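COMPLEX REQUEST
Ligand: s-citryldethia Coenzyme A
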Amino acid sequence: MKNSITMIDNRTGKSYEFDILEATRGPNVVNISSFFAQTGMFTFDNGYTSTASCKSDITFIDGEKGELRYRGIEIEKLALNHSYLDVCYLLLNSRLPTEQESLEFDLELRHRSFLHEGLRHLFQAFPSDAHPMATLSSATSALSTFYFSHLEICKENEYQEMARRIIAKIPTIAAFAYRHSIGAPFIQPDINRSFTENFLYMLRAYPGGKMHRGVHGEEKIKEIEIKALDTIFTLHADHEQNASTTTVRGVASTGAHPYVAISSGISALWGRAHGGANESVVAQLEMIGSVENVDTYIERAKDPNDPFRLMGFGHRVYKNYDPRAKILKTLQDQLKDELNIDSNLLKIAHKIETIALSDEYFISRKLYPNIDFYSGIILTALKIPTSMFTPVFVIGRTVGWITQWIEFKKDKDAKITRPRQLYLGD
Ligand code: SDX
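STATUS: Structure written out below.
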């Protein structure tokens, strides 16, 4: 039996044959790269709902089962048993690190977390009410003027160094963007603190690096807060060919600097249909205000004439519960007492979820809570300001973007991204 499909043009009776490429997990693909050459027509796939844009072995998603794997390992195992930095190592190297490699990777990222002094001045150019995502995207693009500006990266050690630099520096840029937005002096990273603790420290510390002194002596950043944020970073680390990753690969395909590709990913992620949803979820829960109002908003979400959407609900791929949302919901239930999670927001979220999961409109469209539905409630409990929710997503996702960028660069068959169109003009 030939591993191909035959398509017949019913207007002419002409048949065309296209090879099937086998996947190791999930759907196989039909190779239609010769479709235009054979038929003189383009295929049309609005929003790429049925289109594979590349070959990859980084992240696997099964939308029907609600399954997510990084380099073949289930997200539940990684979130429960490994640090975010070990997950970064896994994504970059296709295997988890040994204990020694993990220590060395952690230490290298601590040393690389500092920014060139020249970059500090860029932040001053922004108005204090600039959204941190705008500053983050601009400063990340500016990093390209400090590193690898004249180097065609092609050796493994160069890929690794370039990747480790950006993973290490993004939290510092994000923290500086926040500190600028509140008119507070920047807090330099503390190499005695872990990757995740450092981010909370750079957000919260007082000038001179002193933490707020509680009534019983110096208040440490609680272990439970570090673990919760580390898990959130892991859950956001990569997610196959989503909108921002597709943007990063598109910029990679033109040969531009890797850090401007990451900057373009940050810009794409900002939209509320994508990573900006976590910020919108909390704003929406606060707008709904009480469980008594939930029914009204559910009806609005179902009304085709009302642009209101339930933020944090629905997903292009997951037609089942987003496994990351499940993990966050469990984490939230574990933390609600220790982190004093806002019980009103929680009650509203749970009411929305309960109603939506039993309502025909949501069931028929397979709309379930996604990663953004619960992440904002936990971030609020971690005293992370709403404007920093999507920057937190950026910190988690940078390793995914740069890993996908490297995979694109190593792909000998990679081509510049250049889709066609269905022209309807004159
Ligand atoms: C992320 O792709 C990724 O992997 C992204 C991400 C990642 O890790 O990178 O997982 C992160 O972006 C998660 C998604 C965060 N966005 C939101 O929560 C915003 C709210 N959700 C929607 O805007 C929407 O569900 C999308 C954008 C997420 C998915 O949109 P699709 O796949 O293009 O689906 P669609 O818009 O065609 O909707 C299908 C139907 C429509 O109804 P009908 O026209 O068939 O009558 O479902 C309805 C939509 O109106 N619908 C919703 C809804 N989402 C879809 N109705 C109410 N509320 C919603 N949230």
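REMARKS: DSSP finds 18 helices and eight strands in the chain. The first strand starts at residue 4 and ends at 8.
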